[in-house]
């Protein structure tokens, strides 16, 4: 079967609903349109004029694809393979993700119940709205879905950013760098340095074989640029959209193709002894959702940093929790 026919077969009757037709939502719709993964893309936004304008514009791009783009309502979540949540306030220059928690948690309390009520029993929620880990936790609680059916985009974006930094440092393609960021999609994230490798060699060994010094300070600088990337970009252009849109489509692909791909995404669980929290670890993603099947053998220092990351997310979750 040709690649085009294979993609059309995978897209089949696949419907994707995007809630929030702002910058992230519409860039995701465009990336999804070009990917050929979906037959039907539905955009929902509280701002009806905006969603109509975006759908008309995207509809012209859709002319060159086999995908239909339209506006809709929560009733369209019925039969959706995934509902991608990008609605909510974004960071202004200098603002942190936790500063969005009260406003976006209140928004989730109003939109997740109707989305969940309309969705099908196998619909997966993908959460991008910030702070992504806290809202992934909120989406599980408010939807009643099992945790594997709620996937936070989490550190999938930070992992691509770290790989780009390391690829530039080592002079190889980012896709040939096997490294990932775990924990919070935010300031307490950490690279799993003890497991990072190139061609199966840990980074110090790779440097030894390549006849170059392993520069710990430069590794830390790569981690810092990764952690600060959103601040740096928002300072200059007021938002981030292309990176996250591509990450969302990369998460949707193994869902549609039932591909068991491993990505660092956020899920509710117990991490480093902290219960009932959401954060990112490598998970297997397929048509049923995301599953962390193999615990990560982090070293002692990384485990302690992960525990601190989990504690800080847990504190944010408690700050918006409704009293029992
Ligand atoms: N997880 C990640 O890596 C990233 C997350 N984000 C987050 O994504 C979110 C969206 O960011 P942008 O698209 O830049 O913001 P934006 O302001 O461009 O779009 C937000 C959209 O949400 C809509 N909205 C608000 N209330 C709604 C409701 N009740 N129902 C439906 N739609 C509603 C607004 O009308 C607006 O169109 C923010 O929380 C931002 O921080 C952004 C980039 C990366
Ligand atoms: C805004 C945001 O969360 C990011 O680009 O990482």
UniProtKB/TrEMBL annotation:
The keyword Oxidoreductase applies. It catalyses: (S)-lactate + NAD(+) = pyruvate + NADH + H(+). Residues 155-320 form the Lactate/malate dehydrogenase C-terminal domain. Residues 15-152 form the Lactate/malate dehydrogenase N-terminal domain. Its EC number is 1.1.1.27. GO terms for biological process: lactate metabolic process. GO terms for molecular function: L-lactate dehydrogenase (NAD+) activity. NAD(+) binds at residues 20-25, 45, 104. Pathway: Fermentation; pyruvate fermentation to lactate; (S)-lactate from pyruvate: step 1/1. It is an enzyme of class 1 (oxidoreductase). The keyword Nucleotide-binding does not apply. Keywords: NAD, Oxidoreductase. PANTHER family: L-2-HYDROXYCARBOXYLATE DEHYDROGENASE (NAD(P)(+)) (PTHR43128), L-LACTATE DEHYDROGENASE (PTHR43128:SF16). Belongs to the LDH/MDH superfamily. LDH family. HAMAP family: Lactate_dehydrog. This is L-lactate dehydrogenase. It comes from Sodiomyces alkalinus (strain CBS 110278 / VKM F-3762 / F11).
